[in-house]
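Lab meeting minutes (informal)
Scribe: AK
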Amino acid sequence: MHDLVIKDALLRDGFQTIAADLAVDGERIAAIGTGLAGRREIGAAGKWLLPGFLDVHTHMSLPFAGAVSRDDFFTGTRAGAFGGVTTIIDFTAQKPGEGLREGFARRLAEAEGKAAVDYSFHACIGTVTDRALADLPWAASAGLTSLKVFMAYSRSGLMQDDAGLFRVLEACRAADVLITVHAENGGVIDLLTDRAAAAGDLGIAALPRTRPLFTEVEAITRLGHLARATGAPTYVVHVSSGAGADAIRDARRQGAPLFGETCPQYLFLDDTVFDGPRGQDFGCCPPVRPPGQAAGLWRGLREGHLQVLATDHCPFTRADKDLWQGAITRLPMGLPGIETLGPLALWGSGAGELPSDTAIRALTANPARLFGLWPRKGSLQPGADADLVLYDPKKYGELAAATLHMGSDYSPYEGRRGTGWPVLTVSRGEILVQDGAWLGRPGRGRFLARGPGHLLA
């Protein structure tokens, strides 16, 4: 007799579909078969049973432009669980003069006692120092097997010049750490922003003009050359354009070990949102792109040049966004997204943009493999953590801030409708959400010390 059996489901892990029961004992998947019996049984006829989704790009409680992102590690992971997310990877941050150890300890203290699902961190550095690079082997041994760096944000002390980036790539290759990169040409962005400021033109329409499409494409192309020269596996975060996806494709064809993620905002929104009366609500970096660019992102996912769907979840309220006072240089940048990641991805699949198996892999197995969590996460194999999402492909869904659970008081997808919705979320054998009711608790999530990632073809 098993602890929990989900009966008569379509088990889908992105590689195969099996009509079967799935049994859970304790925190792990115990068996897959027919006629399994459990002390608790949940009928799932006509529904898909998927691995729990991973959102490997979140920003909980992030200070930005005089505000702090409105989800902490409890409210954000709770919201994610409503959308089927059972694992997140957030980011450490160091104060000036600190090393990776201090930043990790502080961030871990923020998550412990709050997170409702399991979590990990990408280490993050600004200025490249000998101390930061010397900490990389320690970070890997502590389970932080990925590192975030920036090719933009010079005025925040985050941007790497090419020499610094080359040093970090070399160090990550030596430490078996996956480097993740915010790829925009920060020098050009600073120049265009200064020109806009001098002209008194810092309204929301200036956001795409000061961060134009070519700044992403150029940065990805340059990064591809550096990744190939060093042999360092490199992951490009929040690719915002079809042209950017094409740049990753071209670099990969030339032998660069380059991988990439995109986010729902770049698949479902375009820069016409800035024409509305509250265009500032859609401010994020990189910005959403002109109509037509999303088609290239969907193609990049279909063809495997982009492997991961994540969110860059960084929610603010309208009052936070209004701190901008008409200047993008004062605008808290970021959008809510963790709760709507899975539904939007699968709605896109249902609309014919992406095979459903490809969407499932981009939410589960691919991020788990790249970030050293496979097969514990992102898998339906017996022995894996019982992180599960029961998805009803026929259940109608409508996105509205009033019924979502994220910290923002608006949704960038307000009123968008689709068919398909998570009806059950299980994390390590514990039911967190069932039929729209929250059954979880703060602090049950555990830190995940990750091993080296498994590169994808």
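Next up, CB showed the second protein from the same session:
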Amino acid sequence: MKIKDLRKLKPEEMEKKLSELNSELIKLKGQASTGTPPKNPGQIKQIKRTIAQILTIQNQKSKEEN
């Protein structure tokens, strides 16, 4: 997802997206550890990046409230 799209999400939607991404990341890491070749090798990196972007946006919003 683009950062602009992430900023438009409501806090509840952001939490839901974050939990979905975390579960997807766990699943992909489990596949990689068992030796299964990934369908898209860059997907793990992209998921990690999106998780970091969501956490950054959440921190920025919480600092703005204070």
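CB comment: The chain has a mean pLDDT of 93.
No objections, moving on.
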